[in-house]
Structures are given as C-alpha cells and as structure tokens.
Design a protein that fits this description.
6 helices, SCD2-like
C-alpha cells in the first residue's frame, strides 16, 4: 500500500514546490516508508550532507551552510518517515534554487585554473 501512495505523494510534491510545507511544519502524521522508499530517502540525505560539506569546504553560502550541514548530519539518527521524504525533496529544491552545483563547479575550477572565473563570467555574459 505504501508503494501505491508514495508515487502520487512524490508527484504532487515535485509538480508544485510551493506546496512544500514550511520547514518544521508537517501537515499530516508521518507514515512508515517501505524498504525501497527508506533507502531512497537515506541516499538523498547522504547526498545532501555531501553537498553541504563541499559548500562548507569551499566557503560558499556562509550565512546558511552551518545550519544546513548540521540539519542533514542529524537526520540519520532514526529511521526515515514520510516527513523525511518531504524534507529531502525540499533540500534538493533548495540546492537547485541556490545554484549550489554551479557554485561548487566554479569553486573547484578556481583551484585547478585560477583564471577560470574570468572565463566563466565571459561564458555567462555571452
């Protein structure tokens, strides 16, 4: 039964990100996830923790990085629930909105090629 309701719940979350509950606000009681759903949530939590660690290492987003990293580090303390599934989707949306992947790419390019920032700005303005 969980497998039947999960795709619909996830679809509604992803189709309208403005419907995501505010952080810490969950509109319904949490339900247990199937093994596959739990594994998916755990993978996404690990992915988000990895990204926020890289953000911290590269000193990006200094106003929020510590809070986000701590949040994702604390998520592995218990089995994931439906609320955690919503949180990881919200976290992935946040990464996209902030352009974290592009920022990390640019920061890592600076380490390899210090002149890459100038090239990156020329590419964007083109």
């Amino acid at each position: 039964m969980a497998l039947q309701r999960w795709p619909n719940a996830l679809k509604s979350i992803l189709t309208d990100e403005s419907k995501l509950p505010i952080k810490g606000q969950h509109t319904a009681e949490a339900y247990e996830l199937s093994k596959q759903e739990s594994d998916d949530v755990l993978f996404k939590q690990a992915w988000l923790m990895y990204f926020w660690r890289r953000v911290k290492v590269h000193e990006l987003e200094p106003d929020i990085v510590d809070e986000r990293l701590q949040f994702w580090m604390n998520q592995g303390d218990r089995p994931p629930t439906s609320h955690d599934a919503v949180d990881v989707e919200r976290g992935l949306v946040e990464l996209r909105k902030l352009g974290i992947e592009a920022q990390l790419w640019q920061a890592s390019r600076k380490l390899i090629d210090p002149d890459s920032e100038h090239k990156w700005k020329m590419h964007i303005n083109f």
